[in-house]
Design a protein that fits this description.
Blueprint: H1 2-23, H2 28-39, H3 52-70, H4 73-78, H5 80-105, H6 111-120, H7 126-133, H8 139-169, H9 174-208, H10 214-234, H11 239-253, H12 260-297, H13 304-343, H14 354-362, H15 368-375, E1 380-381, E2 384-385, H16 389-414, H17 424-446, H18 455-478, H19 483-516, H20 522-539
Antiparallel strand pairs: 1-2
Helix pairs in contact: 1-2, 1-12, 2-12, 3-10, 3-11, 3-12, 3-15, 5-6, 5-8, 5-13, 6-8, 7-8, 7-16, 9-10, 9-11, 10-11, 10-12, 12-16, 13-14, 13-16, 14-16, 15-16, 17-18, 19-20
């Protein structure tokens, strides 16, 4: 029962921290870390022992799967060059540079272990950056950070596993490791894509036979990242890349017919799952902080001097990571401009100013994946304790905290005076999509011939058909190219939505009255209320 109580307490804290984060002007991850540390205070004394392998298995696959699902694929392809240089080149640059620096700064950490620590410090968290910047970052920079976070989760953790294996076995060959890395990465991608495709085919087969219950299909989707991860690991491939590939593939397979209810439920379930898992990871970091600090200073004769010097080590490592990232971003960006000039392709759409380079640098916030990875470091190496495991976790936790705090301070300052320009291209695409879909609907209704049984039914059918077609013609007016026509249509649309919203709320109040007076049963209440809620959700925000 104690485990159940602990889980319920943590889930409650995740929800409460979201509410507190709206009052306190701090990013949500910092609030959750502080809440976890407060809960672990000796007077409250909540202690959670983490199994490294279980922690990695429970948290990483669904988070990486969700990242792959949400990532805009076209933006990922258009910015593939900068994203790959950040997600692969920068990871390797960080592993080598930061690895040697960590080993020089802390000689008690063996070089392979220092490389492993540098690798696990490489993945970034675009969700935390978005929360801190409040979506004020220029769209190309935000897409770069999102794509980098998606790809370097995989490249950083795969490199981390190789470095960890070298530390445990004491054997490392660059040629062998490079070939194995490519095989493991391609194998993971192939397994994720294949398994996701098979699940999509299975779901299509079920839908064709009328088995389209949304809950069943959502459960399949929830199990898919874990299945992709486990299958790839059992076959010697990368479970991390397999989960990412499964998510990216599933975003294409999610367009199956007769799946409207499933998509609505699936989005809600995954939003809840992502929020809960991210929150739990940062809460667990806060809960582990007292134990991490205690483990780091337990073998030392003095507490505060030792803790002070360890904090200085963390600060030095963090500064080294920031400098390495800035050097890489500045160099690669300017090199890409030079190459484009030599090839006669013109300038980049985003000019590499000092501010944009610092935005990309400070935007490399470390988060949930770094913590999940470092927590997976084994307790033992052979028959002996893993060297400086507690110190590794302390450094990772400190870097996460420093990156969050520095982003909270630096990003608002760097974004000062920058107004995010409206994405005119995207808005034009939205208008064009609505216009063309409305035209297709009208053409479909015009070609539809209803053959009723008598004249009265024919008149009613023609009236209903005309009413539906008028709604689609109204959509065409809303997305007309004329600015005056758009303004008038939007005003009428807003008025109509307000009237519909008022009518829906009146329906809901009457439904509640009928229920209170026992004129309808609970099952009828739930069924009608669900339809009313869905109709109101379709209206969107009405101001």
């Amino acid at each position: 029962m104690q485990t159940a109580y602990t889980v319920l307490i943590l889930l409650m804290l995740v929800s409460v921290s979201r509410l507190v984060g709206r009052v306190i002007p701090l990013p949500l991850p910092l609030v959750q870390i502080a809440a976890g540390a407060l809960l672990a205070w000796p007077t409250l004394g909540l202690h959670v022992a983490l199994d490294p392998e279980l922690f990695l298995f429970l948290f990483l696959p669904p988070l990486l799967f969700s990242d792959g699902w949400r990532m805009p694929k076209r933006a990922l392809w258009q910015l593939r060059g900068p994203i790959l240089t950040l997600a692969v080149g920068l990871v390797l640059f960080t592993v080598v540079g930061a690895g040697y620096f960590i080993h020089w700064l802390l000689p008690t950490i063996p070089l392979p272990v220092a490389f492993a620590l540098a690798a696990v410090l490489s993945p970034t968290d675009a969700v935390a950056v978005s929360a801190i910047s409040q979506n004020r970052l220029p769209t190309p920079l935000m897409h770069m950070l999102q794509g980098e976070a998606l790809m370097n989760d995989a490249s950083g953790l795969v490199t981390f596993k190789f470095a960890l294996a070298a530390a445990v076995t004491g054997v490392f060959s660059l040629t062998s490791a490079s070939l194995t890395f490519v095989a493991v990465a391609l194998g993971g991608l192939a397994i994720g894509v294949a398994l996701s495709w098979l699940v999509g085919r299975l779901r299509a087969w079920m839908i064709a036979r009328g088995w389209d219950d949304p809950a069943t299909h959502v459960v399949f989707m929830l199990l898919l990242p874990f299945a992709a991860y486990v299958l790839a690991e059992r076959l010697g491939a990368s479970g991390i890349l397999s989960a990412v590939a499964a998510g990216m593939m599933q975003s294409w397979l999610d367009l199956l017919p007769r799946q409207t209810s499933t998509r609505l439920l699936n989005r809600s379930v995954w939003s809840l799952l992502e929020f809960a898992f991210n929150g739990l990871i940062f809460l667990l970091l806060g809960l582990q902080l007292p134990d991490i600090i205690k483990a780091v200073v337990s073998h030392e004769p003095t507490l505060w001097p030792t803790l002070f010097y360890r904090c200085l080590d963390v600060l030095a490592i963090f500064v080294a990571l920031v400098l390495l990232r800035f050097i890489w971003v500045q160099s690669i960006w300017r090199l890409s401009v030079l190459l484009r000039r030599l090839r006669g392709k013109g300038e980049l759409t985003q000019v590499p100013t000092a501010r944009s380079c610092w935005l990309l640098t400070v935007g490399g916030v470390r988060g949930a994946v770094t913590l999940a990875g470092v927590m997976s470091v084994p307790m033992l190496m052979g028959a002996q304790a893993f060297p400086e495991r507690d110190l590794l976790i302390f450094i990772a936790a400190g870097v996460i905290l420093l990156s969050l705090v520095s982003a909270c301070i630096a990003l608002p300052l760097l974004l000062r005076g920058i107004e995010k320009s409206p994405d005119d291209k995207r808005r034009q695409e939205v208008r064009e999509a609505w216009r063309k879909t409305a035209e297709a609907a009208i053409h479909s209704l015009e070609s539809e011939e209803v053959v009723p049984q008598d004249a009265a039914q024919a008149a009613l059918a023609a009236e209903r058909k005309a009413r539906i077609m008028s709604e689609y013609r109204h959509q065409l007016d809303v997305f007309n190219d004329s600015a005056e026509a758009q303004a008038l249509a939007f005003q009428m649309d807003l008025l109509e939505r307000r009237l519909r919203l008022k009518a829906l709320r009146a329906q809901r109040l009457e439904l509640y009255r009928l229920s209170r007076q026992h004129e309808i049963g609970d099952d009828v209440l739930r069924e009608v209320l669900a339809d009313l809620d869905l109709s109101e959700a379709n209206l969107g925000q009405v101001r």
